[in-house]
Amino acid sequence: MEVDGRFLSTCLLLAATILVAKLISAFIVPKSRKRVPPVVKGWPLIGGLYRFLKGPIFMLREEYPKLGSVFTLKLFHKNITFLIGPEVSAHFFKAPESDLSQQEVYQFNVPTFGPGVVFDVDYSVRQEQFRFFTEALRVNKLKSYVNQMVAEAEVCGDLF
Question: Is 59 within 8 Å of 51 (Cβ atoms)?
Answer without folding.
Answer: yes
